[in-house]
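Attaching the record inline, Q. Sequence:
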Amino acid sequence: MDQHTSGESGTPTRTRILALTVGAIGVVYGDIGTSPLYSLKECFSPHYHLTPGRPEVLGILSLIFWALTLIICVKYLLIITRFDNKGEGGILALMELVSERKGSFAKMGAIFAMGIFGAALLYGDGIITPAISVLSAVEGLEVAAPGLHPWIIPITIVLLLVLFGIQKYGTGGVGRIFGPFMVGWFALLGTLGVISALQTPDVFHAINPIHGINFFMNHGFGAFVVLGSVFLVVTGGEALYADMGHFGRKPIIRGWFYVAYPGLILQYFGQGALLLREGDVASTVSNPFFHMVPSWGVLPLVLVSTIATIIASQAVISGAYSLTWQALQLGYLPRLKVMHTSSDERGQIYMPTVNWVLFISCVVLVIAFKSSGALAAAYGIAVTSTMVITTILAWFAMRRLFNWGFAAAFAVTSVFLVIDASFLLANMLKFLDGGYVPVAMAAATFMVMITWHKGREILRRVIEKRNKPIFDIIHEEIDRYEDVPGTALYMSGYVGIAPPALVSNLMYNRVRHETIVLLSVNVKTASRVPFSQRIEVKHLEKGVYQVVLSYGFMDQLDLMHDLMYLPEYDIPVDITDAIFVLGHETLTVKDDEGMARWRKEIFVFLHRNSRTPARYFGIPVKRTLEVGSHVAI
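Structure, as predicted:
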């Protein structure tokens, strides 16, 4: 169900849906919307040794048409987007959704491993998409002025700096700027495509899939290799699922079928028509998009394309924010600074650390690969791998959530798995030419995520083992100490266990506050937790209360607001005057029990550089007391 509602009825107004649809076109479809800049030209790249004759052009266009139709229209928009986790999409949301159903430990472990690795792969896509999109547009300058070649990379880097620099204004703000422009961009793509295609209407025969089949029959393994470049037309498909929480399912579907899909199909067919007419002209084959306009229109088209590619990168950037937020909330990444950029749309966030890591990575790629053609070799493996994992997870969703019969779920999954696996194998052929880059980044990210998750489990066990249950403290020790007026809230991730900060405070200061609140934050696997289920209070004894605040992994954490309601649960506390006592553990590694020593060292480093609970939860610094302790893991 979409979370974006207005009015008393709780249903989106037409104006609201229109605004979200335009915003979705600008943010979600920017990536896939700029694929025409480089996709078809890569299919006829010299290393494939293909001549753009009629069978080749119609065959590749047929593959492009059916790839967009089957993968985006059918798989993602008609099926995958139905598997939303209370309005949220993305591979982590799908992983948590299907893992809620009971299964064997081995099966659940496999689901979590696939989900986490699929999420890690999207970071690889997140660094390549902005680099290849902006670089491919700036390369259009060479069509109009070959002497500008030395300036291509510097201009690209400056544009990337601008792109990542405006992210702090939020997805909504960016969408309001980018949305109307991208509507015009898709209209331009469609218009240029129609003008060219009408000059050679024979190109529309490519809709017949027999041309794609004949292409494989005539070129054999060579046709399979070309699939690696054909796949470029659907890169960005995973982003529309990941960004579902930003805009909702309906606006994303409408934006695709009403605007993006027609514009893309017409553009590709227009480029194909141009190749049918001028396939013997090398310059046209090397960059058909910019040869669709007269010479006087090249520079304006370069300018418009450059703006479009800056916008294109927005899909994977906002997707990376959503993905990181989900991973952070689920305990797979350390606490990072998160800025919520909209009071209306809870999914719209900005994460400075993620933003600038992506920027630096993009710049390194541009400098290292130097051209969009070289970067295209690195593109695809991460996205195709994620799509394969999404299809496998969708199988569990069909069976467990939708209660599809085995035959129906198997038939649908098999079709998409064959398509996804074919594209994956074709892209794997480019592994040594640059495909290793996103795979290596995904592997490193995956290791960090599972190390952090495992490290937190080890730390929890150590603390629970060395600390007493809270009832022992209440019954045996708390009466020994003098009462002082006021309320102290001790934050702890261990319900039922005495917080180390409380034990230390009693031991060294030998006083206790008249009201003690043991506060825990519980992030559930559900994407949202309604406010009616947010606060759970347990009255212990002697002025001690256990409070658990529950959130979904996409909920905005607003502790200070929620704690204002504690008096309604018969807790005598003035939250504006209470002090927060937080534990601060200094970690050291003592052995390799539970996890390899080098992984423990990584966990200690991440823990040391994680954002403090006070800053992360928005607790007033002036009313925060940190009590340190040493823990060996």
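The chain is about 60% helix and 10% strand. The chain has a mean pLDDT of 84.

More tomorrow.
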